[in-house]
From TrEMBL:
PROSITE patterns attached to this UniProt entry: HIS_KIN
Top-level taxon of origin: Bacteria
Protein name, UniProt field: histidine kinase
Domain Histidine kinase span(s) in chain numbering: 238-453
Keywords: Kinase, Membrane, Phosphoprotein, Transferase, Transmembrane, Transmembrane helix
Pfam families assigned: HATPase_c, HisKA
GO cellular component, one term: plasma membrane
Organism phylogeny: Bacteria, Pseudomonadati, Pseudomonadota, Betaproteobacteria, Burkholderiales
Segments crossing the lipid bilayer: 6-28, 35-55, 61-86, 93-115, 121-142, 154-175
EC number assigned by the record: 2.7.13.3
Reactions catalysed: ATP + protein L-histidine = ADP + protein N-phospho-L-histidine
Length: 547
């Protein structure tokens, strides 16, 4: 088999130009200096290989001196690029420059003083071997760089380059070189192909190094962003905590002043209380968001009475809907499991959040809570949906409504955290919160959960549907006027019931618990509160009989 050295050099030059173009294309995207140096290294080697092929058409200065100089210079440029990549001092560069100078001088000597092709081969092989040794030593001492190990693949390729050039030094005495180097036999041709494969290996190794550097930079940027986001969340938590204390103090003083206030003052103080409560609600949402971001959101499934939980939530929903004259509908499945494994508090938090939003953005309309239960072996598939006939959402705006601080309707004055928190809870429970809406026609938020259940569907109790019309009072007996507190206190209680502020109603009861004359009234009030019958409380207060 007779291989042609000129053909090998030609294809080597083409391969080098392709590799140079690839490196420069990567540089155009990232502007990394080492990519330019490596690209120029491949380019000059390709030019040197072409000059060697054109020996019969150009002077020896270009084909021999410049051609060999450029191919050796490419190895120096590879070393410089490696140092730039690892951000290390180029300690061997002066020595490599000296090697290049000696190589050019000896090549000139054996071209113009004594024409000796074999001697030129030895000079070229020795220069390349010395530079390869320097590169290997630099790679071994660089250790770690760019967040990872010193890339063993480039060490292997540098070692292969050393072996190829060393083989040229060792094998040339056994395979003599003719005066016309391009007429060399198979040995020099195989070495040329081996050098081409070595440079392809360099290109692959350099590409992997660049990819590893980009990955490390991306990880560092991501870690920086996460740290900044963590700091912002902590600041939100601190702000929320520090704002809550003075607001609670203001609310407390307003409650104290209500005891001795006349009608005009009482009106202003109640306004202050409402504003404080509203701001505290917003702060609580901020704190909930900060807590969810700083630590993983957890759910704790326990045995939960599902029908009772949904009845309680419906009672809350009635009070929420009454504030804007909305009709509330509760549409459960005909049968529903009594006890399921579910985090009831988290479920209540999600549904009340959705119901509150539905009631807030609907006036004189309908808010519906639908729940369906479907048995699947030892698991019950629960589907929840909260729909309304309110202003709806313009879905064409392509806004992530479940993102933190997203406000579809800025005029609402909310923090934009409610849906974010609800979505986090539903995800922690194994579901996905979704929305379907048309602007001006209402919205429907829904999710599906699979929960364990012990009883078979044949044992599931029948659950009644429920519908409450606006202004429809719950039945409540009339109390003698002397058995009820003064009008000022009753007006406050009526306002609390209308706004669905259960905790404040509990505080109201505590403030009047020492009055013996009010015991029957307070007992009835406690009974209504335990059933979360806020409309019943409102009706009880308004049905004051004469003394």
């Amino acid at each position: 088999m007779n291989l042609n050295l000129g053909t090998a050099a030609f294809f080597t030059a083409l391969a080098e130009f392709v590799l140079a173009a690839g490196m420069l294309a990567l540089w155009a995207k990232g502007r990394a200096r080492y990519l330019v140096v490596w690209g120029v290294g491949f380019l000059v080697f390709g030019v040197g290989a072409l000059l060697l092929i054109l020996r019969d058409r150009i002077p020896d200065f270009f084909s021999i001196l410049l051609g060999n100089f450029l191919t050796t210079l490419s190895s120096v440029l590879f070393y410089v690029g490696i140092c730039l990549f690892f951000d290390r001092r180029r300690a061997w560069l002066p020595w490599m420059a000296g090697v290049l100078a000696v190589e050019v001088a000896l090549l000139a000597c054996f071209s113009y003083v004594t024409y000796d092709t074999s001697a030129r081969v030895y000079v070229y092989g020795a220069a390349q071997s010395v530079i390869a040794l320097m590169t290997l030593q630099a790679l071994c001492t660089m250790g770690r760089g760019h967040g990872g190990n010193s890339n063993p693949e480039v060490v292997v390729v540098a070692l292969l380059a050393l072996l190829v050039h060393g083989a040229r030094l060792v094998g040339t005495p056994f395979f003599p070189v003719p005066q016309d180097f391009l007429a060399s036999g198979n040995f020099q041709t195989l070495l040329a192909f081996g050098l081409k494969l070595t440079h392809i290996g360099y290109a692959l190794a350099f590409g992997n190094m660049h990819a590893a550097a980009l990955h490390a930079d991306l990880r560092a940027a991501l870690a920086h962003i996460e740290a900044k986001a963590h700091q912002k969340v902590e600041i939100l938590g601190y702000i929320g905590h520090d704002l809550r204390a003075p607001l609670a103090t203001i609310g407390g003083y307003a409650s104290l002043l209500l005891a001795d206030a006349h009608d005009t003052q009482r009106k202003h103080l109640l306004t202050i209380q409402r504003s404080v409560k509203y701001q505290l609600h917003l702060i609580d949402e901020l704190l909930e968001y900060a807590k969810a971001e700083l630590q993983p959101l957890t759910v704790h499934p326990v045995t939960t009475d599902l029908p009772r939980l949904l009845d309680d939530i419906s009672d809350y929903a009635v009070a929420l809907c009454a504030q804007r004259n909305n009709r509330f509908r509760y549409r459960p499945s005909e049968r529903m499991p009594r006890e399921i494994g579910l985090d009831g508090k988290r479920m209540q938090q999600v549904l009340l959040n959705l119901l509150s939003n539905a009631a807030k953005f609907t006036r004189d309309g309908v808010v519906t809570l639908s729940v369906t239960a479907r048995p699947e072996g030892r698991v019950c598939v629960l589907s929840f949906a909260v729909s309304d006939t309110g202003i709806g959402i313009d879905m064409s705006r392509n806004i992530d409504i479940f993102g933190a601080f997203q406000q579809m309707h800025p005029a609402s004055g909310s923090t934009g955290l409610g849906l974010f928190i609800a979505q986090r809870i539903v995800s922690a429970m194994g579901g996905t919160l979704s929305v379907a809406s048309v602007a001006g026609q209402g919205a429907t938020f829904s999710f599906t959960l699979s929960v364990p259940v012990d009883a078979s569907d044949a044992d599931w109790p029948v659950v009644a549907q429920r519908e409450t019309a606006p202004g429809e009072p719950s039945p409540a007996p009339a109390m003698p006027r002397h058995a009820m507190p003064e009008d000022r206190a009753l007006d406050e209680l009526a306002s609390l019931a209308l706004q669905g502020r259960v905790t404040d109603i509990e505080h109201w009861i505590e403030r009047h618990a020492d009055e013996a004359a009010y015991v029957p009234f307070l007992a009835l009030l406690v009974d209504l509160l335990e059933r979360l019958d806020l409309r019943g409380i409102h009706a009880l207060v308004n049905r004051r009989s004469g003394s």
